[in-house]
Design a protein that fits this description.
With 511 residues, this protein is an alpha+beta fold. The chain contains 15 helices and 16 strands. A 16-stranded mixed sheet has the order 4-3-2-5-6-7-1-8-14-13-12-9-10-11-15-16, sandwiched between helices. Helix 2 runs antiparallel to helix 7, helix 3 runs parallel beside helix 4 and helix 14 packs across helix 15. The N terminus and C terminus are likely disordered.
């Protein structure tokens, strides 16, 4: 099917051309972004883009080793390998020197990467470690919500918000010819560091006692370090701040909207926002991995290509070992870097941390980085016979790479997992097939086949051995029931303690 011609921009957009008219429009846009994201715009910052492991890890370690008062570190994956041990040693040395060091690790993300002894040794040196959302009687489906953030804050002077985890796999495997993973982070200096600290402290408090009073920096107490304005987007489950902001950004884009995402799974409202932008003449591009550590997510991602391609969105697949970055750059003026993927798990299920930057200079750097990345990709296109084919985009002098879906090496090691996104998207595909409420793509055939076979086997099992199905369901129902009663009792106790008046002081001593 031939690509539809892009419609011209609306008159309302094209008429905003003189500076006097542009200023109020920008003010309205800034207000809308603040309300949609729940994050105010903070001016006076200095920002530096950091690429890949070699551009991030040494800078992080240097900042930690120079800490004099405080280190906050939060990461989804923290592995007991060469990189993880280096960070553990740096954190331990600072803790022994009297620096307050706090670490948040995700239970699922660190489940297999580091031993319990590793965490005990770290805690023994004075590092305070809290584990987010381990299995709990009161939360049967708690695994769906993860702490997917990646951040470091040091001494209220510098903060890092990134897509990289603390693991040697980001270095690749030179001995086997596996190149480093492609990823992006940023360094922040200035008042916005206080917002990064606060994001950490809010999650820290959900797992125990809050940080000591006076430990956090007030945003107006930090000196201005530059002229970059940005928002710190501290995503929490069910709040959908980034989801609302990204849809608004797609609506406001006038020239270009370039996205990079590691685990893209199209959500209908966001896909429609991208389609509308492309049909209105905006240059919309999506860069995703080809080789990936989560093949299921790749299948789900490809299932959503067709409606985007038909609207004029250009899609590129990375030819390297793994593309793990989560970034956006819009109109050469706005950009985003952080931990959030464009899927339901990040939009609604996880704790995430991103930074949205409104600065022409940083956005230009992001555009240059994006164009460099495109040199190592393969573009996805629709052929006239509606069969998706690939056209190569390779560095000069190299042969054009042509491939079919399913080609490309798969990483043998797991990266930043998208289990919740996969589960939700499988349910979406099955639901669409049953209710016929949307068109299914060819890439969803395997998902439907495996789901159909699984359901048929379950039906046979229930017919031949009813107890084999009834007992697990009964156990799950009992677990959920106990969890609800337990939660109810906890809330009732909290209500009574809040309603109880404070104890009166005794009479003063007579002299």
């Amino acid at each position: 099917m031939p690509r539809k011609q892009a419609k011209p921009r609306s008159d309302a957009a094209s008429c905003v051309s003189d500076p006097q008219a542009i200023r109020p429009v920008r003010l309205i846009g800034e207000q809308a972004l603040s309300r949609a994201s729940g994050a105010p715009l903070v001016a006076g910052n200095k920002v530096r883009l950091l690429e890949d492991a070699d551009g991030n890890f040494p800078v992080w370690l240097a900042a930690i080793r120079a800490a004099k008062r405080l280190v906050y570190l939060e990461n989804y994956i923290f592995e007991e390998d060469e990189v993880g041990v280096a960070f553990a040693e740096a954190l331990s040395e600072r803790a022994r020197a009297g620096v307050k060091v706090r670490v948040i690790r995700d239970w699922m993300g660190t489940l297999r990467g580091a031993s319990a002894a590793f965490w005990r040794r770290l805690a023994a040196t004075g590092v305070e470690v809290r584990c987010f959302n381990p299995p709990h009687l009161g939360s049967p489906f708690g695994w769906l919500s993860r702490d997917h953030r990646k951040m470091i804050a040091v001494d209220a002077e510098v903060a890092f918000v990134t897509g990289l985890c603390i693991s040697s796999r980001w270095h690749g495997d030179p001995a086997r010819g596996v190149p480093p993973w492609r990823d992006t982070g940023i360094e922040i200096r200035g008042p916005a560091v206080a917002d990064v600290e606060n994001a950490f402290a809010q999650l820290w408090e959900t797992m125990g006692a809050p940080v000591v009073e006076g430990e956090l920096s007030a945003i107006d107490s930090l000196p201005q370090m530059g002229d970059v304005a940005l928002r710190v987007l501290a995503g929490t489950p069910s709040m959908a701040g980034l989801f609302r902001m990204d849809q608004l950004i797609a609506a406001l884009a006038r020239r270009s909207l370039w996205l990079t995402d590691a685990y893209f799974v199209g959500v209908t409202p966001y896909v429609q926002a991208l389609r509308a932008a492309a049909q209105d003449g905006v240059d919309v591009r999506l860069l995703v991995p080809n080789a990936t550590d989560l093949p299921l997510i790749r299948s789900l991602s490809r299932a959503g290509y067709r409606p985007l391609l038909e609207a004029g969105v250009r899609i590129f697949e990375w030819n390297g070992s793994m593309l793990h970055a989560k970034t956006a750059v819009v109109d050469g003026r706005f950009c985003r870097v952080g931990s959030s993927n464009l899927n339901l798990a990040s939009f609604l299920g996880n704790y995430e941390l991103d930074v949205a930057i409104e600065d022409d200079g940083v956005a230009r750097q992001m555009e240059e980085m994006y164009l460099r990345d495109l040199q190592g990709t393969t573009e996805i296109k629709l052929a006239k016979n509606r069969v998706i084919r690939l056209a190569g985009l390779t560095p000069p002098g190299e042969p054009v790479r042509r491939a079919r879906f399913g080609a490309g090496a798969r990483s043998r090691r797991r990266g930043s997992r998208g289990a919740a996104a996969g589960a939700i998207s499988v349910a979406s595909a099955v639901g669409a097939a049953v209710t016929n409420h949307r068109v299914l793509g060819p890439a969803e055939a395997k998902i439907l086949l495996s789901s159909g076979i699984a359901l048929m086997l379950l039906a046979v099992l229930a017919t031949l051995w009813p107890r084999a199905v009834a007992v697990p369901i009964a156990v799950l129902a009992l677990w959920v029931g106990v969890a609800l009663v337990w939660r109810s009792s906890r809330l009732a106790l909290e209500r009574r303690s809040q309603a109880q008046p404070p104890a009166l002081a005794g009479p003063p001593h007579s002299e």
